[in-house]
Amino acid sequence: MSERIPLRKRLLVRLLIASGLIAVCSVAATAWLAVATTTRALREEQGQALAADMEVLAELSGYAATHRDWRGVAATVRELSAQTGRRIALVTPDRRTIADSAPPGTSLPPTAAATVDPLRTDTYSERGAQLSGTDPRVVGPYRLTTAERTKLDLLARKRQSCFARNGVETTLTRTPSGRPVVADADGATGQNAYVPEPCADGLLNTPTRTEEKALAAFHTLARDCLTRAGVDPGLPVALGDALPGLPFRSPSFASGYDKTDVKDMRQVESCLDEARRAQLDPYTAPVAELFLGGGGSPAVRFDMSPGNKAKVVGTAGLVLAVTVAVTAVVATRLVRPLRALTAAAQQPPDRHVRVPVTTRDETGILAAAFNDLTERRERLEAQRKAMVSDIAHELRSPLTNIRGWLEVTRDGVVDPEPALLAALHEEAVVLQRVIDDLRDLADADAGTLRLYREPVRCDELLHQVAAAHHVATADVELRTDIDGTPWLDADPVRMRQAIGNLVSNALRHTPAGGIVTLAARQDGDDVVIEVADTGTGIMPEELPYVFDRFWRAEKSRSRRTGGSGLGLPIVRHLTAAHGGTAQAASEPGKGSVFTLRLPGGPTS
Q1: Where is 584: in which H helix or E strand?
Q2: Which terminus of the chain has fewer Cβ atoms in its 10 Å neighbourhood, N or C?
Q3: Cα distances (Å, whole numbers) of residue 560 to 478, 508, 518, 557, 565
Q4: In this structure, are strands 454-457 and 477-482 parallel, antiparallel, or unpaired?
């Protein structure tokens, strides 16, 4: 009765579970990827990373405002990239890399996020706005010396104390150029702030020598531009508006400028901008383009609509159903031949059941191997039965003869004459030979067959075998044909036994007038020994079985005329024990050739 396999251990169930898990994981991974991708796209489209982008732009613009070139900016780029989790690349307008947080060779995004130019973009005063103007951190020649800072700090503290005595709360700040600024509670400074009369000495707002020198150069650049534009350079202009980093107006210009002349006003403003940029340009880094890539910023929560959820669930269910269905079909086709194999293997051994081979895959190969194993088992079983029968027959025949003659002699029917004793001795010798052959085969099967190797000359070996069979060759010519003097490293007794069995077998099947030839030759490192006869030969369908035990070419032959059927198996085992091979070739009606190929030995 076949054993019932638990449901959880069935191959079909395990395949279905595995495929279901794979399908679920695939659908989940696909859905997660789609949601993550959509979320990132929405975040970028909605500008949720704008604040971080402006922070990066402001930081790099400040670097450009305070450095004459971009040397050393790589460390700042890496630090910003680590803080924001985004790729930051800074390149020249002709796309030569200045600094990049990504590995070398990484392609740039399609478009630049911004242009880093502190002379045309103020990312300091107007954080988050793309306004035209100069970054106040660009101070250039207006940067105060240490002595000037010290003097102005003293004046600022005095003014702050004066304000305090007059009941005005103030704070002290410092501009990028190093000038201290006193601001009231509302943050107003300069001319926009309230100044008590006792504190209005004008000392803090007076330009220093460094500032006067820079302002003079600025006036020259502005007048040159106005002259080229055809505008009277003597028009009064308030330069304080043109230089937002200075908390005062230039005393070189009056406040009577006629702002109703729109054309002149625009030209003057243009010249002021041109002069400002021309004066500060040598103190800033060259213009660069900023590229920003994706990063690991926190994901924005993305909630799908009920309709989208239904689509995802429906698609996942469809994929899962198709996967399970396909797996079920495949698994059923895979399990069917395995079940047939199991059923065949559980049949009684004497039935030798075979299974059909319907595929060419691994299952088909397994079925073919099972059928081959069944066929070999059936053949071995038949050989075993035949061997038992043959052994019983081989032992019964001489024992029956011996017992019969001994009983009639005991009863006085026949006298124990020499001829009778000779016949009984011959029967005992036959019985002893069968037993010796069986013992040799048993030793060979068990691997206990002992060999006493020594250098052996093939010519002497073949001559000894021929001489031993000389009496049995009255009607058959026995020849020897030896090419050179081949040597073997072999047991001479066992080799004479093997070659003698071949010669006996050849003489037994060669009619009168026939020829049996013993030949030996050197073939490379091997020695080839052949025993050829001109006898009846062997049928092609019988040739594969000539070395099987108790096989006879003619089934009707008796032990005396056909041998025991053990000689050729002994030849094969003795040859294999010497590291050689035994082969047979035959043509019915023309004779047979038995070939022994053995490893050659050293000459002595």
Answers
A1: strand 581-587
A2: N
A3: 21, 10, 24, 8, 11
A4: unpaired
Is 486 in contact with 456 (CB distance < 8 Å)?
no
Q: Give residue 299's pLDDT.
A: 42
- 22-27 — which CB contacts under 8 Å span 24+ positions? 22/323, 23/319, 23/320, 23/323, 23/324, 24/316, 24/320, 26/319, 27/315, 27/316, 27/319, 27/320
3-class SS of residue 230: coil
Which pair of tokens denotes residue 168? 């005005």
Point out the residues of the chain with pLDDT beneath 50.
1-2, 128-131, 237-245, 247-260, 296-302, 556-562
Output the pLDDT for position 490.
Answer: 92
pTM over 0.85: no
Residue 86 burial (10 A CB sphere; 0-12, 13-18, 19+): buried
User: Which residues fall within 8 angstroms of residue 513, CB to CB, at 6 or more apart?
Assistant: 475, 476
Q: Yes or no: say if 519 and 482 are a contact pair by the CB < 8 Å rule.
A: yes
* Number of Cβ atoms within 10 Å of the Cβ of 293: 17
pLDDT of residue 468: 83
Tens of pLDDT, residue by residue over 118-154, are 888 766 665 544 345 788 888 889 899 999 999 999 9
Give me the helix-helix angle, 492-508 and 458-468, nearest 10°.
50
| pLDDT at residue 131, as a whole number | 45
Phi, psi dihedral angles at 455 (to 5 degrees): -65, 130
